[in-house]
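so my prof wants the structure for this chain in the tokens format not the other one, which i didnt know existed until like an hour ago. anyway here's the sequence
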Amino acid sequence: MKKIIILLCLGLIGCSATIKDSEHLSVTSKDPITYTEGEFDEIITVFSDSIDKNPDYGGGYYNRAIAYFYYQNNYDKCWRDVHQAEALGYQFDENFIKALQKASGREE
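here's what i got, hopefully its the right format
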């Protein structure tokens, strides 16, 4: 059940981010939810599978980039997905890109 909820949340974030002129996104929760590393790996696998089925699905790259950044600290894969999502018309929040630049030590 937790997997479904996180996938829905990430999907909603991805859908919201497709609006190029949108204000920056904010997701808040009163009750913190914790997940295991294995659950995040499964979430990344779901997005990877959706990309394999439809390589032009920018939302998959967008959401997988978010997961790579926040849950795996895999900045190289995150950057790769950021570039692919942006090439497909998705726009990341400026604060996310700044955090990625700081964490990765790279400006792209």
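also thought this was worth mentioning. Residues 44 and 78 are 11 Å apart (CA to CA).
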